[in-house]
User: What shape does this take?
Amino acid sequence: MNLPVLLWGPRDERPNSKGVRLRDSQCGLFATGKVLRRFKVPFTYLTNCNIDDKEFAEGLDRFLRICNVVKTFRKTRILQIGPRPFDFWSTMCNEGELLEKFNIQLAPIPLPELTEEMAKAKEEGKKVAEVIEYCKKNFEVCVNDKQLENIAALKVAIRSLADKYGCNAGAIQCWNALQGEIGIMPCAANSLLNEEGFPVVCETDIHGAVTALMVEAAGMDENRTFFADWTVRHPDNDNGELLQYCGPWPISCASCKPKIGTPLAFDYPGAVEAEAKHGNLTLARFDGDDGEYSLLLGNAKGIDGPYTKGTYLWVEVENWPRLEAKIVEGPYIHHCVGIHQDVVPVLYEACKYIGVKPDLYDDVEQEVIDKIHGVR
Assistant: This one.
């Protein structure tokens, strides 16, 4: 059936006064695991425990999250808005290979189709007006009325095209052709869509969109994901790093009321500015080359650091030089996805079912496996 399988059996009762056992569930688990291996059926094992034990409840919840990642991954279709920027060889992908290996589909559209959809949204008016009202309520708006209307129309247009083509995520060529057409950065529109649970990533990074979908599915809508650049090391913390982008992060990630203004690297308005909340995080990146795909993943925590433009968060990891080496040596690039949640065990185990190698950037593999098994 090619579906995730959970293998669990209840802890056996005490033998009765005559020395008779009602069943040998644990013995059956040992046999079943071997049979599943014989038939090449991947499975997730949950430790032999009672149905009212904490391990059972946590293990069942974790398995449902694993199933959600697998289901989402296998039914992915990404709205590709424009080709990648010319200089970004790093974000190129093998469309045919993604389809053949994983059934990941792309729905490419040219920028004129996007601008036509924006014009339709403005003409209809109602949805655009609702987005404008939402922005005025939830953001400090530092753009003029026409620019805000374009932001709202872009958000409505992308959502409409995603529905038209049956897409569950988007990847947009966010510079420079788009600015010449509509006069704004798409970051704030992306932020609004990301807040709705429709991930949109930058620089036509298809692998980044796949990562966002996987992490979002592991989180089960409890927290929103954010798409980030690995940028510079912390000036005072050797294990610190700046996660930053022009401004596409969802509003629920922000530690303060976000502002819609102009980003650092561009003259066009339309980007969100806010520091993200601190706390514990999962960081991940799906990527590959030469036909081999893996998922870089691990934990981090938000820390204090200097103010910077855009949406940003300084994070600390256990060993930054080790993580840096993994990114540089590949197959990864300067993009990652973060979530304010520990979904590392879920993503690690989901890789078993989708043909992707899990790649932990911390030396904690046995700890992660123990969590999956419910070992305390």
